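Section 5: illustrative case.
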């Protein structure tokens, strides 16, 4: 019988390390269920979604151009020739 008590007590003590983390802050239910706060630019985006789409497309195109410009040899041909063994 005594051995049966040792196992649960050992498990209980294993969970008590003395270095307990703080619990996360609980939010009130009305705050959790409230509508999210929209950013300042949201009304403009709602009024003119085509402008937002065009701006996003322009930014994507600019990023694609930058990525394309980076495609190329990392090591310049002259430096690469010097790095290769002569022989």
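Designed sequence:
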């Amino acid at each position: 019988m005594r051995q049966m008590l040792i196992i649960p007590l050992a498990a209980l003590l294993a969970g008590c390390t003395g270095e307990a983390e703080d619990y996360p802050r609980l939010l009130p239910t009305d705050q959790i269920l409230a509508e999210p706060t929209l950013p300042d630019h949201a009304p403009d985006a709602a009024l003119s979604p085509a402008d937002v789409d065009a701006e996003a497309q322009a930014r994507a195109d600019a990023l694609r151009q930058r990525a394309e410009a980076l495609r190329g040899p990392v090591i310049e041909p002259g430096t690469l020739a010097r790095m290769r063994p002569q022989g």
